[in-house]
Amino acid sequence: MDPVTHLSSGLMGGLAARRWFPEAKFLLPACVLAAWIPDADILFSDGPEFNLLYHRGVSTSFFGTLVLALALAGLYKLVSRRTPFVKIAALFYALTLTHVWLDLITTYGTQLLAPFSNHRFALDGAFIIDPVFTLTALALLATAGLGKKHRQTIALVGMAWFFAYPLANMAAGAILQNVYAHRLDARGVAHDHVRVTPDALSPRFWKVVVTAGPDYLLDTMDLFGDREPTAPLRVRRADKTFLRALGKQQSMFATYAWFTLWPYVEETDTPEGRTLVFRDLRFASTNPVMTWYYDGKRLPFTLVAHLDHTGRLTAWSYEGGISALADAGEPPQ
């Protein structure tokens, strides 16, 4: 989730808890720091592959956030000595876990069990930047700031909002998923699986990813008047086994196979061999807003492989996303 939402959850949590910490000094800035600190892993970036492997890794896991909360509580005791350590540590842990939740509800997901498992968990609760979600939270914050009499009550409502909105989206997505599957059945379109997730400007736009044999179908549902396209975008599914095989020549490809959810590939023959462009449908969209934004631009998390006629990797390049360096890559050794 975007930094503004994370920071607002910390401020909201601090306002909600303030009455129970009358002795605490600088509680609000400490809570804002607690809500942000799981993202501190971005300060240790060491290239695109490192970011894919470790961003939203141990620092946004149940174990990592506990360590961060305890460390932050220890430092906070130096500032506010009268505040009980266990009490403030529990608050900081709750706020770091709220950060984890806000990352978990996006399709990017997070490694909840790191460092014991690198499995990436993800829910379909919100797009990574959701104006309705964030602006409502900011409005509640402003209301809490102005209304001293009911500040804690409003702040508690605000904290509930961070959970209620994504849960409502998940329920809506499940309904839309059934609607779209029935639509495919009615048109006689063979498919294996349908997944509907919030897209940019949700809850208006929803991304639809259909697994159909060797292909994916990418579509958009518009709740303000769904203009169903004649045919969804059809792309060829990438073979993760093949990506892992390329990973024996350059580890980035094995990492990409692990990271991607719906990888697809475009192949072009060249005089030297062939060029393969790998992307992930998590970061693609037929939503009119996203189509306009990315017009003429390369999609984030794009990995390009140049192979010779024997299948040997001769060069590669990578277009990073929000959490990675752009256009990073090097030829294999």
From TrEMBL:
<feature type="transmembrane region" description="Helical">
    <location>
        <begin position="57"/>
        <end position="76"/>
    </location>
</feature>
<dbReference type="Pfam" id="PF04307">
    <property type="entry name" value="YdjM"/>
</dbReference>
<keyword id="KW-0378">Hydrolase</keyword>
<keyword id="KW-1133">Transmembrane helix</keyword>
<keyword id="KW-0812">Transmembrane</keyword>
<dbReference type="GO" id="GO:0016787">
    <property type="term" value="F:hydrolase activity"/>
</dbReference>
<feature type="transmembrane region" description="Helical">
    <location>
        <begin position="88"/>
        <end position="109"/>
    </location>
</feature>
<protein>
    <submittedName>
        <fullName>Membrane-bound metal-dependent hydrolase</fullName>
    </submittedName>
</protein>
<dbReference type="InterPro" id="IPR053170">
    <property type="entry name" value="Transcription_regulator"/>
</dbReference>
<dbReference type="InterPro" id="IPR007404">
    <property type="entry name" value="YdjM-like"/>
</dbReference>
<keyword id="KW-0472">Membrane</keyword>
<feature type="transmembrane region" description="Helical">
    <location>
        <begin position="121"/>
        <end position="142"/>
    </location>
</feature>
<feature type="transmembrane region" description="Helical">
    <location>
        <begin position="154"/>
        <end position="176"/>
    </location>
</feature>
